[in-house]
Amino acid sequence: MLGVIITGHGRFASGLLQGVEQVVGEQLQCCAVDFPEGVSHGELRCLLEQACASCDSGEGVVILSDLLGGSPFRVAAVLAKQHPDYQVITGTNMQLAAEMMLEREGITPQRFRDMALKCGQRGITSLWHEEQKQCTQKQNDGVGSDGI
């Protein structure tokens, strides 16, 4: 099974992991690495390296980060450049994290990466857009008022 590390500013990582586990249950080979104020880049790198080592069973690791270009992303990117079986995904949201925890058995880090981007994008919507989809679906199902 792929290892998953969640990282981000403040308590983003631990909060997201707590939320994911509330929805989909406890996760093996998964941990959160927070980046609170006062932690250096060197300390963050050590924490991420330890987390990767503890979660990697030999099938690879995916690091989910909060913000493109932020320190957690940049440190994770350095680690991924050193390990061909590591992938880094940024802009992580709850939709992506929860769905992908259920899909990580038996897939490659690259397949996880590609699927995760679709999951994350699907999770970004609005009430209005969802209502429009439902209206369109009802119209397509009914084809007309008499069902013909």
Structure characterization notes:
The chain is an alpha/beta fold and 148 residues long. It has one domain (3-142): Rossmann fold (3-Layer(aba) Sandwich). 53% of the residues lie in helices and 15% in strands. It has helices spanning 12-24, 41-55, 71-82, 94-101, 109-122, 127-142, and strands spanning 3-9, 30-35, 61-65, 86-89. It has a four-stranded parallel sheet, with helices on both faces. Helix 2 (41-55) crosses helix 3 (71-82). The longest helix is centred in the last third of the chain and has 16 residues, at 127-142. Pfam families: EIIA-man. This is PTS sugar transporter subunit IIA. InterPro entries: Bacterial_PTS_sugar_comp (IPR051471), PTS_EIIA_man-typ (IPR004701), PTS_IIA_man (IPR033887). Keywords: Cytoplasm, Phosphotransferase system, Sugar transport, Transport.
Give a nutshell description of this structure:
By secondary structure, the chain is α/β, with parallel strands linked by helices. The protein has helices spanning 12-24, 41-55, 71-82, 94-101, 109-122, 127-142; strands at residues 3-9, 30-35, 61-65, 86-89.
